[in-house]
Design a protein that fits this description.
307 residues; mainly alpha
Length: 307
């Protein structure tokens, strides 16, 4: 309880510090003014694209657990929206805990199995973010080695299942946590490589849509080359792993982008101002996820469906 209060207190102080810094260094009116220059249709398109990316996340979860969630896509969509709402607002990705809880509540899935499956999904996210980073470096300094590295990185996905079988065989019969946990991690993969690669395809679509929207918003507030915008968005997206956060990621989100873009020669004040506006865009999308999720009917209790 004390640590939770401390986290919220620190988060509130960081948020207050960010609000004060913006007011004294830029001014909220000045910072928000460029929103008026964005055509409403463009804003609606980018907002819809960001929402679409969260819808595709639901498709990915549904497909990953296909044999167990068949016929339950609306409930999967509800779960995904609520999970990402919590994940975007709570510090240190503590909202991730909602995923296994809702998988248990809605579908009767074991919490450990759901958590381990989510670990693989997050691994796919990280793999794709590294691929995008390689693409951004290619844009920054074109050369044949970058696409070759990207192809090699993509090819590493094909090693997962050839390595899985011998590792499971080696772990079979071994006792103790050092054997049981790795075995459960490997068993939480989809049934076959095709399903695994399909999950990566959904990951590509999810992040592709999100990056298109976020890069466009960022460049509206601070014009910059495409590769810089991609790296800036990536820095902010990875800020969730930092140990200290303001409420809803405030402060850490902006500083992570500044840490990436300021060394590239962009002014810190302008970067943080653009990051604040991008963060407001993210929060706008996030705050819509909860009511959208709650509008989807809650699935019947598992016992009732089985009965």
């Amino acid at each position: 309880m004390v640590s939770r209060f401390r986290d919220w207190a620190i988060g509130g102080l960081i948020l207050a510090a960010l609000v004060y810094w913006v007011q004294t260094r830029i001014g909220w009116g000045t910072l928000l003014a460029p929103w008026r220059e964005m055509p409403p249709l463009e804003l609606l398109t980018l907002f819809s694209l960001a929402l679409f990316s969260y819808g595709v996340r639901a498709v990915r979860v549904y497909d990953y657990f296909h044999g167990r969630l068949r016929g339950e896509f609306p409930a999967t969509l509800r779960l995904t929206f609520l999970h990402n709402f919590a994940n975007n607002l709570l510090p240190m990705r503590s909202g991730e805990a909602l995923f296994p809880i809702l998988m248990k509540r809605y579908f009767g899935q074991g919490m450990m199995d759901s958590a381990l499956s989510l670990l693989w999904i997050r691994g796919l996210d990280l793999h794709l973010l590294i691929l995008i980073a390689l693409g951004a470096l290619w844009l920054r300094a074109p050369g044949l080695h970058w696409p070759l590295l990207m192809l090699g990185w993509l090819g590493s996905l094909l090693l997962v299942y050839p390595l899985r079988a011998p590792l499971l065989s080696w772990l079979e019969g071994k006792q103790g946590k050092l054997a049981v946990l790795p075995r459960r991690v490997l068993e939480s993969l989809p049934a076959g490589q095709t399903a695994f690669l399909r999950a990566y395809l959904w990951t590509l679509i999810t992040w592709g849509a999100k990056f298109i929207a976020f890069v466009a918003v960022l460049r509206h507030f601070l014009p910059m080359p495409l590769h810089q915008a991609v790296m800036g968005v990536m820095g902010s997206e990875l800020s969730s792993v930092l140990p200290i956060h303001g409420l809803a990621g405030s402060g850490s989100y902006e500083l992570a982008m500044a840490a990436v873009l300021v060394p590239m020669g962009l002014a810190a004040d302008k970067v943080i101002g653009a990051a604040v506006n991008l963060h407001l865009f993210l929060l706008g999308v996030t705050l819509l996820l909860a009511p959208l999720g709650l509008l989807i009917p809650r699935p019947a209790p598992v016992a009732c469906r089985l009965g």
